[in-house]
Amino acid sequence: MTELRIAAVGDIHLGEDVRGQYRKHLEGIEERADVFMLTGDLTRHGTLEEGRLVAEELRGLPVPTIAVLGNHDYHSDLQYEIAAALRDAGVIVLHDDGVVIQCGEVKLGVVGGKGFGGGYAGKCASEFGEREIKNFVAHTRYIAESWKVALKEMTADLKVVLSHYSPIKETLEGEPHEIYPFLGSYLLAEAVDTAGADLILHGHAHKGSEKGMTPGGIRVRNVALPVLGRAYAVYCLGENGAC
Amino acid sequence: MEAPQYVAARVQAALAEDGRTHELGIRVDIRGDQLFLRGQVSGAEQRERLGLVAHEAAPDLRVHNEIMVVEFTEPGEDEHLD
């Protein structure tokens, strides 16, 4: 199996005032990467106009492009319409499911979705008490279970998980501790550790840190644009680890 | 007089919930009659809108808009995960 080069970014938050600006940075992406992944918060307010703008920005890229949506993209309750606009532009959009694509000699499996919050082991919400709290935790648990099943059922040479919310605390370092439960959940990491994957990519935490690892040893990268400080990161996966 | 912590919380909520901005993660600090906004956004117009919404939410305070527009470079070195 040859190596695979994954370009990744999240939280690009495009709006009319920056139309066309991000696209310029995608020129020549095919020279640097085999696939492009986006970890959500592609829009600011989740309007259909913004969704269409993002779709135009990503249309016709020379490498396969896979995305999940983020909480901003859900704000106007138009997440499915935004996803449809992106799909019309050739972007694969995941909603707690998976896809397998052939990248050269590598069969790449990608599983993911928005993810959700709840906090991290020992300092997290649980399904107890008021219905609202139970629903909050149950939403994350449902997502984690969906990812676990999708990963287990998938046959691929390499598996990558795309999320908006963070599965671990390490990549939140720099954010106020008080808001960690709104930034992610350990249930996501636990599910991926159980099913197995080669890399987890997420965004959401603008003030966080790029690099971390799940308790099971799966590498995690926070690719939020303000964290990266560059148009996208490129991660190389594969047996010889060389690009 | 309303405690500055509550005013700051109200401004922060306005920045997140106002349809013109919907911006999370902006830090709001109040010192006397001065209000400071800090954080990063994706464009200059968004920064200006945040200053406007903050002013509307706390019209008696002088707003110092110290929000920065995210600057990013071309993709750099690849990371090899072996």
UniProtKB/TrEMBL annotation, chain A:
> What is the superkingdom listed in this entry's lineage?
Bacteria
Q: Which UniProt keywords apply?
A: Hydrolase, Metal-binding
Lineage of source species:
Bacteria, Bacillati, Actinomycetota, Actinomycetes, Streptosporangiales
**One Gene Ontology term from the biological process aspect of the record:** lipid A biosynthetic process
Among its keywords, does the record have GTP-binding? no
Q: Does the keyword Membrane apply?
A: no
Q: Which GO terms describe its molecular function?
A: metal ion binding; UDP-2,3-diacylglucosamine hydrolase activity
Protein's recorded name: Predicted phosphoesterase
UniProtKB/TrEMBL annotation, chain B:
* Organism domain of life: Bacteria
Its protein name is BON domain-containing protein
Which PROSITE patterns does the UniProt entry name for this protein? BON
Location of the BON domain: 3-71
The taxonomy runs: Bacteria, Bacillati, Actinomycetota, Actinomycetes, Streptosporangiales
Q: Which organism is it from?
A: Nonomuraea wenchangensis
